[in-house]
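Researcher: Good morning. I'm working through a list of sequences from a screen, and I'd like to move beyond sequence-only analysis. For each chain I'm collecting a predicted structure so we can compare shapes side by side. This is the next one on the list. No need for commentary yet; just the structure.
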Amino acid sequence: MKEEFIIENGACHITKKACNRNSRHMLPVVDWMSDIPKTRQEPDLVEVQFKNTRKGYYHNSPQLPLEKGSVVIVEANPGYDMGEVTLTGKLVEVQMQKAHINLERYEIRNILRIATAEDDQCAVEAHAKEQETMIKARQLAKSLGLEMKIGDVEYQGDGTKAIFYYIADGRVDFRQLIKVYAETFRVRIEMKQIGARQEAGRIGGTGPCGRELCCSTWMTQFNSVGTNAARLQNIALNPQKLAGQCAKLKCCLNYETPIYEEAVKKLPARHQHLETKDAVYYYFSADALKEEVTYSTDSHHPANLQTISVKRAREIIDMNRRGEKPLSLGGKQSSVETVTVDYQNVVGQDDLTRFDKKKRESNNHHNHSNSSRNRNRNNRNRP
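Model: Good morning. Structure tokens for this chain:
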């Protein structure tokens, strides 16, 4: 059967078995092995996703004909739960390895059956209570003076258990809170802490790039982001510009990091200085993608900045090792760009005296107008 590409609402549905961009779940997985028949049958492990980013791995013991998008009933503690199949076949084991799940210690439950209309109705009734429960749960947590925020509530498919997702900066003693919740909502209570990135992905929004947040659309997992990615790309360490909607470093800082890592390997070492017959030049900055390096005659401050290509820099380094010194940084095969720096713009703003200049110009114009007016008045008063 020939698979079709369907364009709908600006999203691309590759196949139902492989990828669905408009999936209501977060952290979708692209099953790039879905077209290989053997990989969809072995092993019998299946990835099932529930609300938000909660996923579980189950055995397909009844040997049901499952595929991506199938709604199934799985074992839970207690009772049962209902979720959607998001991955089958060999890639399930790969996903478990990426999630650092030990098969020997992880308790793998079984899939019971494909969800029926009665199961779906029971789950709808249970999920209908989530919004009201979350509002009440926030009020109870606030009354106990706990430094935490209830971000979301998820009821189990059979309605016998509720998971409370909370956000907190530190450790929270919620033993008393669990007792209050159990007495109020009459269900089994489970508390699960989530991070700021998961909360931003759950709420969604628009980033500074004008597009929908990556964490709420196409990202398959949350990766750690460090300031080293910004330093590598010569991005100013401005927290207001580097932070995303979650107040953490933007995930997109990692996108181009591998390219810069490869480009930086071609640059000469920072401690390597260049010697010419007229001066000694020290490393100042570099543009890894353009393969250009800027050198200064002062080791601590920008002075007589000159930009040359990486190839020319390596030529001079080889000459210095042989005890030779060129006349200047430039050569026949390389052009030298001299950069003049009036002041060091380290915070991305204009000259601090820019308003004073306009004010002095305005005062000079005002004084010139007054002097001209006085001369005309004196000329009229003369006999």
